[in-house]
Specification:
The complex is a heterodimer of chains A (about 1000) and B (about 190). Helices cover about 20% and strands about 25% of the residues of chain A. Chain A contains 21 helices and 50 strands. In chain A, helix 5 packs parallel to helix 9 and helix 10 packs across helix 12. Chain B is an alpha+beta fold. Chain B is about 25% helix and about 35% strand. Chain B has five helices and eleven strands. The chains are: A alpha+beta (about 1000), B alpha+beta (about 190). At the A-B interface, strand 8, strand 15, strand 31, strand 39 and helix 20 of A face strand 7 and helix 5 of B.
């Protein structure tokens, strides 16, 4: 198709052409076009269907405020719904599809909704789908969602990448129109660090859309020269395609830079978009203004658009929606559209001005005191019907109508921290009110609408903003520019007319809907929004809110400021979820922590599991093993039979030093630590302030004033934070220094009856690690492998004779290889977290499942560990009556009555004769495993009066898993209850 | 002398180096680290002892001190990290403890961290994609803490186009991935 509506001039590169498709149909456009301008140039007016009634709709605006021309861009995994054709930069090969229609845009079967519009008024679903209640979720809501809506998702993973970044500046200038450019030039020349951000791909704002001259230069030429100078200044960062989406505390702003949206696919390794966090000492909002329409009957036909947009398409993009147009306005600015279109060779049928005294500014027919009362045209505008000043009717044939109801300063970002705009009677619009700290406003965003005024306020406000932070700047010399005053008579909607007068074209809200909301007492502006959906969805009512407020004010007999505005919230324009997620997705959702033996474990074919951020070896399968249980059973048997090695680096390690270190630990742990001898390790139980068990672990005393604490893997950070809080806030006078050493040391548990023999081949001979020389719970600094410094702890989680040996992490890989080589004679095996878990259950050691945030020392069978001779965090509150009842839960073990039956964690315990319900709950199983040693499933858990119920048979029931097994209450210590093995 | 072979934080025998247009990212395993914290009431002693040991006063808030072969940087109130070549100072913590005695607490930190050096004219363009530190305004000889790839890191400005980044060693691969991804993206 030829570009039948392409005009002369414009800021497009006619030397090159782009091919693109819309609903599968091929078109041509040029670099510099948006999708909307290219479609318009190709004679396409119909670009979308409305949300609820599926009314045919065309482009309304030329910017991000667009409510109608929403399309799906690209295809496959890159398909993106709800993209504004008005801001989508054209590129070669662009694929666009209309949305919310079936089977086609021209014939949309769902337009049947429009026939039922009398039933589908504001709040219809609140009233209609009341009963039966169960139908809402299963029937009504899915049905409504199918019938209404916008674009569709591809349901595939987004193949593109999104970055995040951080920028700092003295002055952030939001908007690169005339005021923003004047401000940037002022601040840039003064040497300030400036960021100039504009959502458009071209700087210049309305200067690109108008025919104004600045001095001797055209608007675009002045913009080009200014931007060239700004780009030459190293202290100025010009960011086009960048939307400042929100203003937050302390001068922090969010901005989305569309790095690759104008390309078919991003270059390899490059992001599609970047979410910037900008730290600005001062912010100057130069966001311009948005034109507002006038509501009249059937004002939504494709071809009816904002007057300023119509001349923007003509001047910047050399496109017109039709060869014959008309203009409907209440202000002088509207006449400019007619003037510019005529200059471009477009026939302007008439300027219809509601003002009886409207000036004749354009060289065409002026119908002063007239109003548009209806329109006609099935898929696009064909005729407008007028009520003339003398009361007669007249019909005009035209393919497009430019409508101007005045301009609203773009106050959005002034309100993100709950600022409220104030009413300016002269321009009949809200202007910025109380501003966030550090923010000022210039240009049309303040209500200054002449070119000279916006340039002046841009440069002046930049000087003031920089002066606030001690930087001196001089206002720039301004070129001569247009300085016409605003001449406007407020006019919001045409009262006459049978058809619906549309206020919010995105949400299909009409004047009648607002009247209904008023009639049904939804009169607060916030209620009006929710009841009618006025101002919701992707455009957030940028072109509709004011009309709605004005009509509500009329109905309520209030002024518009008396009605007030809804709260403006970030983001200013929609932001893709991928942009908010950035690079934190998939396997990079969070950082991974690798253990020192990770490389070696991978070589062994270990199966890994995430434990927090850590990747730990879960088990080490061997050839022939077909299930994880086979591997785990083998590892457990090997450890209990000879020796095994497990990477336990992940346990938190906290270095505690200082003259008060012992007393500090005495207060942190419930049990006593002050008298722990140097060279010894002790198990410690830590309580929360409320007396509930928090964490446990062992702490070794390396010197009088030096301890090394271990925490559970999961709680390492929590415990460290807890201790820092105690050190800094509770007992600041204590001489204690803390630092994490978790990753500094590679630590391996070497467990099993042959562990000592194995380690004797590793530990340098001058260190005696015999039972006498290095008894159970001993610790010490040693050397291994011929002089490498190391630490050795005789502690056991498995219940076997066991040691934990630590070397500097860089040697961790070498140590595991050395241990495996040295242990070959003993058939040493590596074991993973599963075998570790089985053995600790066999031994009855509590872990995270038991220290689950609800249990006390008493529950855990460690009540006597809570020392009464000293104070410690949580010890007092652990004595609360409620935590010390006679029938308190106690940790015990369970075995199935029938050995083959499974014990599952999470099941609850019931008596065999009583009912199975919550009121008769006896307790619950926290951890369970198959014990290859006992050749039976076993479990540990909490049972009321557990210690007194040894031998009793109970039902283990889990309605969730269908478990119903008889279990016998036994000691939680299934293996070596006397502890002979670990002391061997 | 032991014969144990050390691996870098990225799991190799030698340091990883990645080069880009205007940027070099190098893993630096050649440094020993020890933390130094003042014990209560020993501020003056620790200052003297540290100056004798290092050959330079301990740096103030947000600052570093250079006195070859040592480099010290501030990590918090009355806390510093001391850096020295690993080959000659693998026992740095022991030597430092001997120097400061009971006036300070010293903890070996060498393998608690991975150090990456970002060098080159474009280093700021990459760092701004990684952390909120205003690196363009950091002076040589300053240090700050910042979050990179969700990880708490120290960022040291050694020269206007040379930054050292210390992050947790166990997450070296994640950190390296973030650095290389940001460099590929930004450069």
């Amino acid at each position: 198709m030829t570009q039948s509506n392409r005009l002369e001039g414009g800021q497009i590169d006619r030397s090159r052409s782009f091919d693109f498709t819309f609903d599968g149909k091929r078109f041509k456009g040029h670099p510099g076009d948006t999708l909307a301008s290219a479609l318009m140039a190709n004679g396409v007016r119909l670009m979308g269907r409305s949300f609820k009634y599926h009314r045919p709709r065309g482009v309304l605006s030329a910017g991000s405020e667009e409510p109608n021309a929403l399309v799906e861009l690209r295809s496959g995994a890159r398909q993106e719904p709800n993209t504004r054709a008005t801001t989508a930069e054209l590129f070669d090969g662009l694929e666009a599809k209309s949305q919310n229609r079936w089977p086609s845009l021209r014939f949309d079967a769902m337009a049947i909704n429009d026939r039922f519009s009398n039933f589908l008024t504001a709040g219809f679903y609140y009233k209609t789908f009341m009963w039966p209640a169960a139908f809402w979720e299963k029937l009504y809501e899915p049905m409504i969602r199918k019938a209404a809506g916008l674009g569709s998702l591809s349901l595939q993973d987004d193949p593109d990448a999104y970055d995040k970044g951080f920028l700092h500046c003295d002055l952030l200038i939001v908007g690169g129109g005339p005021s923003g450019l004047a401000a940037a030039l002022t601040a840039g020349r003064a040497g300030a660090r400036v960021i100039l951000a504009d959502e458009d791909f071209a700087f210049g704002g309305r200067l690109n859309a108008e025919t104004f001259t600045l001095g001797d230069a055209s608007g675009p030429d002045w913009v080009a020269a200014t931007v060239e100078e700004l780009r030459s200044l190293p202290n100025v960062r010009c960011m086009s395609r960048t939307t400042v989406i929100g203003g937050f505390d302390h001068g922090i702003h969010g901005a989305v830079e569309r790095v690759s949206d104008h390309l078919a696919t991003p270059a390899p390794g490059k992001p599609r978009q970047i979410l910037w966090r900008i730290y600005a000492r001062r912010t100057l909002l130069c966001a311009g203004a948005i034109e507002r329409p006038i509501a009249f009957a059937n004002n939504d036909r494709p071809g009816i658009m904002l007057g300023g947009a119509m001349r923007a398409y003509a001047n910047r993009w050399a496109a017109t929606p039709a060869q014959k147009v008309a203009v409907f306005t209440n202000n002088d600015d509207g006449h400019r559209t007619a003037i510019d279109l005529i200059a471009k060779g477009v026939r302007v049928a008439a300027v219809i001005d509601v003002r009886a005294d409207a000036p004749r500014l354009a060289d065409c027919e002026l119908l002063a005191g007239a109003q548009v009362i209806d329109t006609d045209g099935r898929l696009g505008l064909n005729f407008i019907k007028l009520r003339l000043a003398d009361g007669s009717e007249r019909t005009i044939e035209c393919g497009a109508l430019g409508v101007s109801g005045g301009w609203n300063p773009n106050v959005h970002l002034t309100c993100h921290q709950r600022g409220r705009p104030v009413w300016n009677e002269a321009i009949a619009a809200f202007v910025p009110g109380t501003l966030p700290q550090g923010q000022s406003v210039a240009g049309a965003a303040t209500g200054d609408f002449s070119t000279y005024a916006v340039l002046r306020s841009g440069t002046d406000q930049a000087v003031v903003a920089l002066s606030d932070i001690g930087l001196e700047a001089k206002a720039i010399d301004l070129p001569q520019a247009e300085d016409a005053p605003v001449n406007l008579t407020p006019f919001w909607h045409v009262a006459e007319g049978k058809g619906r007068a549309w206020l919010d074209q995105q949400n299909d809200v009409t004047v009648k809907d607002v009247k209904l909301a008023h009639q049904e007492n939804f009169r607060s502006v916030e209620h009006l929004k929710r009841y009618t959906t006025l101002g919701m969805a992707t455009d957030q009512g940028k072109t509709s809110n004011m009309g709605g407020l004005a009509i509500m004010a009329e109905l309520a007999g209030k002024t518009i400021p008396g009605v007030g505005t809804t709260i403006f919230r970030p983001p200013y324009t929609p932001v893709a979820m991928g942009t908010l997620g950035g690079r934190s997705r998939g396997q990079h959702f969070h950082p991974v922590r690798e253990t020192p033996s990770h490389k070696w474990a991978k070589e062994q074919g270990a199966v890994f599991i995430e434990t927090g951020n850590w990747l730990r070896a879960q088990w080490f399968p061997r050839p022939g093993e077909t299930t994880w249980r086979e591997s785990v059973d083998r590892e457990v048997r090997a450890v209990r039979g000879s020796v095994g090695v497990c990477d336990v680096t992940t346990l938190g390690k906290i270095d505690v030093q200082g003259t008060d270190a012992a007393e500090f630990l005495n207060r942190i742990y419930a049990n006593a630590f002050a008298k722990l001898p140097v060279g010894k390790t002790r198990y410690g139980l830590m309580l929360r302030e409320d007396g509930i068990a928090m964490d446990d672990g062992t702490t070794a005393r390396l010197a009088e004033d030096h301890f090394v604490m271990t925490t559970t893997t999961a709680n390492a950070v929590t415990v460290y934070r807890h201790m820092e809080f105690a050190r800094q806030c509770l007992w600041p006078d204590m001489d204690v220094q803390l630092i994490s050493t978790t990753e500094a040391w590679a630590q391996y548990a070497v467990a099993g009856p042959n562990s000592r023999k194995l380690l004797q081949r590793i530990v340098d001979p001058e260190f005696d690690i015999s039972n006498e020389g290095f008894p159970f719970m001993a610790c010490g600094e040693i050397t291994v492998c011929g002089g490498l410094r190391a630490r050795l702890f005789r502690i056991s989680f498995s219940g076997e004779l066991a040691f934990e040996i630590a070397v500097p992490t860089r040697y961790g890989d070498a140590l595991i290889r050395r241990i495996m080589a040295a242990g070959e004679e003993f058939a040493v095996v590596p074991y993973g977290t599963e075998a570790l878990g089985v053995m600790r259950i066999e031994k009855g050691h509590a872990a995270g499942n038991e220290l689950n945030g609800t249990t006390t020392a008493l529950n855990l069978g460690m009540g006597r560990m809570v020392s009464k001779k000293k104070d410690a965090i949580g010890s007092t509150l652990s004595e609360r009556e409620g935590l010390n009842q006679e029938d308190a839960l106690a940790l015990v073990g369970f075995r199935p009555k029938v050995a083959e039956e499974k014990v599952t964690a999470g099941g609850h315990l019931m008596t065999t004769t009583g009912p199975v319900d919550a009121a008769h709950d006896q307790g619950y199983v926290t951890s369970a495993a198959y014990s290859p040693i006992l050749e039976s499933y076993i479990g540990i858990g909490f049972l009321k009066r557990g210690a007194e119920r040894m031998g009793e048979t109970l039902r283990l029931v889990s309605p969730l898993t269908g478990t119903d097994t008889e279990v016998e209450v036994v000691s939680a210590h299934f293996v070596d209850p006397e502890g002979d093995r670990l002391r061997a | 002398m032991h014969d144990m072979i050390a691996l870098t934080a990225l799991g190799a025998a030698s340091a990883q180096v990645d080069t880009f247009d205007g940027l070099r990212i190098a893993e630096c395993p050649y440094w020993a680290l020890a933390s130094l914290a003042t014990r209560s009431g020993h501020g003056a002693e620790i200052a003297d002892a540290a100056q004798t040991f290092l050959g330079a006063p301990l740096p103030g808030v947000g600052l570093c001190a250079d006195a070859v072969p040592f480099h010290a940087f501030w990590t918090g109130p009355d806390r510093w990290m001391i850096e020295a070549p690993h080959d000659s100072h693998e026992d740095l913590a022991a030597r430092l403890k001997a120097a400061v005695g009971d006036a300070g607490s010293v903890t070996e930190q060498t393998d608690g961290w991975v150090r990456f050096d970002a060098t080159g004219a474009r280093c700021h363009d990459v760092l701004e994609r990684l952390c909120n530190a205003d690196t363009r305004r950091m002076n040589p000889g300053t240090v700050t803490q910042s979050r990179i790839e969700h990880l708490g890191c120290f960022l040291i400005c050694r020269a206007s186009e040379h930054f050292s980044l210390y992050g947790p060693r166990s997450s070296a691969h994640s950190l390296h991935h973030a650095l290389v991804t940001a460099a590929t993206s930004a450069l």
